[in-house]
Amino acid sequence: MINHAPAQQAPWLRWAVERPTAIALKVAQHTYTWQAVAEKVAAIAAALQLQGIADDDVVTLVGKNHPDAVWLFLARLHVGALSALLPPQPIAMLQRKLETIYRPEQTMWLFCADPSEAAALQTQLPDCRMVGRIVDCQPATGVVKPANYHPEQLSSLIFTSGSTGDAKAVAHTSRQHFASAQGLLSQFHFTVSDTWLLSLPVYHVSGLSIIYRWLQAGACLRIGRIEDGEMTDVTHASLVPTQLQRLLDQSIPHVLTHVLLGGSYIPPELARRAAALGIETWLGYGMTEAASTVTAKRVDGRESCGSVLPLRQVKIDHDRIYISGDTLAGGYYRQGTLTPLCDDSGWFDSKDMGYWHEQELHITGRVDNLFISGGENIHCEEIEAVLVRHPQVDIAVVVPVADATYGARPVAVIGCEPGWQSMSADLREWLEGRLETFKWPDGYYQLPEHFYTKGHTQGIKISRAAVKTWLSAEIKGCRDPDKQL
């Protein structure tokens, strides 16, 4: 829908006025000032408009992190159109998501930074219109036209991870994303003199939120990867514990001061090592619907997710966590229509379970990950939390499997280095004294490599539904779980 309200100053244009010569963006060996960012974004926006993209269109960006995707996201904000952000995926899955985004009569705008992938998509999806290589256009120096920027207008569509198998398109405005950034940065300090590494994919809210924190702070954004040695000027990063562990073990040159950790259990010793080097390590609790982080704290060895950040509210009713506040999405998007997230009182049911202790939030698990075994309640996450503390376990996913005697029993799928032949015995020994015996998994399987490398190394949670489907096939094959390790 076209927004007829007066446009507001886009955040990159604000910084181009206030800090025109400050370095805003770093891509490999190239640097851009805020003035250069504003000029390039305006030039790309003009090229988008020449191709026919208007402020009532949706532009779908498909692909992994690439500088072109960041430029296009900003240019799309400049035009006033809506961005849908999707990872590379099989064509059938992509088609289903496009059917969620676009009405039958609507132009399906598609952008892919990789030329060969773009050509393949054009062949496989002939009804789509591909956005051309407008990111190479040269801006007219000093010429920056006003942006058609409306912070209250829908800005992004991000599909939920689908951990339950039911992915939905979550719709946020820029104002909601900026509320998320403001609340976090009030405690997790990120200033104009700092640089944040954009290493997480922007098709996940954890990656997109970095862009909004950058725009909120007027700081510098580095697009790159730790593996490429892009750390020598990076002060802030969003990492998983194994990435930070590797960075410290390999003595990779860096100037890190703040790391936001996610993805799995954080060993206290890792936080202490980082602190000794002047690095603050933080953790939090969040979700796509809440534009990333809801609670946060500095890692202190206590098993909580921290306190509620500004501009959010959290309540617990019958052990169930409900969220409200300025960061909540406008709704689930389908072909231009929003289905509200919240109840009539403005509360969103996270379907997470937890409790308060000393004003900090503790998560006990998901409502849909609770099952009954022999009359006893078992939380998958409780078992996973114990398993992942074993020094050789990187990931643990517990799945309930039908059992003739008990109704259901837990089975664990473990992400670890290959070749750990005694894992089953070692983990049973590890659970002794740490977990009631009726909660011990009946079997252990090794997590396939495609789950392990594609998800966990980027800090993105693994699809529990996909793991369950894979495990079901393994069990039907009558394979002995103890031989999987």
Automatic annotation (TrEMBL):
InterPro entries: AMP-bd_C (IPR025110), AMP-bd_C_sf (IPR045851), AMP-binding_CS (IPR020845), AMP-dep_synth/lig_dom (IPR000873), ANL_N_sf (IPR042099), MenE (IPR010192)
EC number: 6.2.1.26
Domain AMP-dependent synthetase/ligase residue range list: 14-333
GO BP, sorted A to Z: fatty acid metabolic process; menaquinone biosynthetic process
Entries under Pfam families matching the protein: AMP-binding, AMP-binding_C
PANTHER family, sorted: 2-SUCCINYLBENZOATE--COA LIGASE, CHLOROPLASTIC_PEROXISOMAL, ACYL-COA SYNTHETASE
Entry protein name: 2-succinylbenzoate--CoA ligase
UniProt source species: Vibrio spartinae
